[in-house]
Every structure is written in structure tokens, then in C-alpha cells.
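Key result, reporting period 2: structure in, sequence out.
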């Protein structure tokens, strides 16, 4: 292996560019950034050497010329445009796919939607279907481009083998590269054991949250002392989102948060809240889950979610959404001090077992 590993990271969402520091900060790595997006990113004042491109066909050639000077290309979120790029990268360059989830899960959407959600996305899905029929040739071409790129990629990342095994059931996928677990949520953080009767619902407005089931649980609960905060700031708009908004507004105990919060305001909500509830059937909202654990919240997940299976196997106290209504009625929706301390210790153990150093060592091994 060369003295320094040249890694180029392709990003299209500025929120995730910080992953370069979190995962690849090592003297043996030479990190560079390619930002692809319509939104202007202040790349000159960022801490990374890089180039910005608009996602147009004419820029694929120049992007490939830059990538030819790398040993590894890390593709963050494999959309159609990045798939075109991947298919033109020379074979001597290793490609790592930082899997976001939506790339595969949207292709089997109904598997990850509850019955209540499916009823309310039916109209949206029929519109999508009509568009796909009208643009059938373009859609099929894009799908072929995507799966050709998947075949070209060397490694796909995930936090747990449980998710990788789930994906393998439905698609032929690249080799598994385990991600490290975030650790910076503990920096300068004091855990408050005094919690308010507040519960956070979901992490965004995407229908994979299956919000309506949670709203029904809230409506059926006899506990009128709890306030519910629903994060609803990003994730698309359509019939489903309007339905969730209407149902939420009918219950004065549910507050929709539709503005994207700064980290300080985001943390303040978690610091005071008693529980975090996410009804996703797929891996998502890990940042919210880890933040909730670090602040001492009781975490409720759907038992069908691979993250529920992973974290409970690792010894963390994760509750099933099936228990939520009963817990609300019995004022058992928070953790005791002992449970908070235990969960934080188990999470710290998780960080040690899935640390950045191990991820970087595995990355170096695949280049030998």
C-alpha cells in the first residue's frame, strides 16, 4: 500500500460532510471532497480540499478525471447521478458506498410501511406510478444504471450485520464494511435525571416514520399529562404528510416542529424529554436514537426494525412500541436513574466495540 491513501469523498448533502472528520481523520489518509449539488456549498472556506460541481451530464467527465487520482472513492448516497459516475470509475480504484438506506428501501417501500401508512400513501403512489408509466423508458434506464453501479461497487457500509443480512435477502450487494458508532454525542454533555413529561415522536416527515400509528396510540392513551413533540422538518411533501399534519393538529397535545433546528435547540429538547419513539421498520434515525440514549431517554422502536434487534442484542434497554400505550397509561414512559446509567454504559461499550480506529484498520486492510 502507498504511504498515504488517497480518498475522495463524493457528497451531495452538506449536513453529512462532517463524516469525513468523524470517520477518516488519520495521518495515513489524504482526504479530498467533491461536492455535487445545485445548492451552493462554501467549499473554499471548508476544512477540506475539494471541488464543487453541478449535477449535469457535462460534468461527469471532469469529475472522473479528478477521481482517477484517488485510491478510494467514497460515494455518499447512491442516487442516479452518482450511479453514472460510479459506472465510469476505472476498475483499479476501490469504491465504498456510504449507504443511506433510501436507495434500496424505496424500491420495496411497502415492506417498510405500516397498514395505516399504506392507506394514506396510496394516492401518492398512484401518482408516482402514472409518472413512471409515462416516462417508462427513462425510469428503466435509471434503474439499470443504479444496479450496474451497485455491481461495480466494492463495499457497502452499515452499522450492523443484521441490516446487511436483510439487504442480502432481496438484492445482490457488495461486501460488508462495518461503520463505527458515533462518539461525539458525549462531548460536554451532562445527563439530567430530572425529566419533563415530554415524548419525541419520529425524526422527520418521511412516510417511513409511520407517524399515524403513533398518533393513534397518543389518541387512545388515557394519560393527558404528557406532551408530544413531532419532528417534521424535512422528508418530502404529499398526501401522506398533509394527513399526518391534519391528524396532529386535531390533538392539542401534539406539537409539530416543522423548522430544522440548530444543534443547540435540538439538544435542549432531548435533554428535557423522557422518551424518544420511532416507528420505522427500517434502519433510520440512528443519530436521534444515539442522542436519546446519551441524554437518558427511554427509546421505543418497532420490533421489525433491524436496529431494535441489533441494539437489544448488544445489551441496551430498548422498548417495543407495542408497550408504549400501556406505559403511557401507567406513567412508565421514562427510565430510572439506574436504567439511564446502564444504557449509557452499554452505549459506551458499543462505541469501544465499533470504534473509528477499527473502521480505519479495516479500510487499510482492504487496500493491502
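The corresponding designed sequence is given below.
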Amino acid at each position: 500500500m502507498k504511504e498515504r491513501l488517497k480518498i475522495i469523498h463524493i457528497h451531495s448533502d452538506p449536513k453529512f460532510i462532517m463524516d469525513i472528520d468523524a470517520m477518516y481523520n488519520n495521518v495515513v489518509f489524504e482526504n479530498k471532497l467533491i461536492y455535487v449539488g445545485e445548492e451552493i456549498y462554501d467549499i473554499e472556506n471548508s476544512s477540506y480540499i475539494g471541488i464543487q460541481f453541478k449535477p449535469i451530464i457535462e460534468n461527469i467527465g471532469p469529475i472522473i478525471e479528478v477521481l482517477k487520482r484517488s485510491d478510494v472513492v467514497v460515494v455518499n448516497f447512491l442516487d442516479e447521478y452518482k450511479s453514472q459516475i460510479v459506472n465510469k470509475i476505472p476498475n483499479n480504484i476501490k469504491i465504498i458506498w456510504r449507504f443511506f438506506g433510501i436507495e434500496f428501501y424505496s424500491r420495496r417501500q411497502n415492506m417498510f410501511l405500516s397498514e395505516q401508512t399504506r392507506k394514506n400513501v396510496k394516492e401518492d403512489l398512484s401518482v408516482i406510478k402514472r409518472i413512471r408509466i409515462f416516462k417508462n423508458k427513462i425510469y428503466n434506464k435509471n434503474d439499470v444504471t443504479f444496479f450496474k453501479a451497485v455491481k461495480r461497487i466494492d463495499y457497502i457500509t452499515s452499522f450492523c450485520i443484521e441490516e446487511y443480512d436483510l439487504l442480502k435477502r432481496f438484492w445482490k450487494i457488495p461486501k460488508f464494511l462495518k461503520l463505527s458508532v458515533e462518539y461525539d454525542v458525549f462531548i460536554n454533555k451532562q445527563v439530567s435525571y430530572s425529566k419533563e413529561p415530554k415524548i419525541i415522536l419520529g425524526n422527520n416527515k418521511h412516510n417511513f416514520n409511520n407517524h399515524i400509528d403513533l398518533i393513534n396510540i397518543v389518541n387512545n392513551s388515557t394519560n393527558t399529562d404528557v406532551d408530544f413533540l413531532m419532528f417534521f422538518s424535512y422528508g418530502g411533501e404529499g398526501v401522506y404528510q398533509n394527513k399526518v399534519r391534519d391528524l396532529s393538529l386535531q390533538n392539542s397535545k401534539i406539537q409539530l416542529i416543522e423548522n430544522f433546528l440548530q444543534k443547540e435547540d435540538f439538544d435542549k429538547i432531548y435533554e428535557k424529554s423522557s422518551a424518544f419513539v420511532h416507528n420505522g421498520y427500517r434502519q433510520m434515525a440512528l443519530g436521534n436514537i444515539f442522542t436519546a440514549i446519551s441524554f437518558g431517554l427511554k427509546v421505543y422502536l418497532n420490533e421489525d426494525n433491524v436496529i431494535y434487534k441489533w441494539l437489544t442484542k448488544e445489551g441496551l434497554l430498548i422498548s417495543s412500541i407495542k408497550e408504549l400505550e400501556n406505559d403511557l397509561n401507567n406513567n412508565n414512559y421514562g427510565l430510572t436513574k439506574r436504567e439511564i446509567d446502564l444504557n449509557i454504559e452499554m452505549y459506551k461499550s458499543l462505541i469501544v466495540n465499533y470504534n473509528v480506529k477499527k473502521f480505519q484498520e479495516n479500510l487499510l486492510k482492504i487496500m493491502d
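The radius of gyration is 21 Å. Residues 274 and 366 are 43 Å apart (CA to CA). This case is discussed further under Risks and Mitigation.
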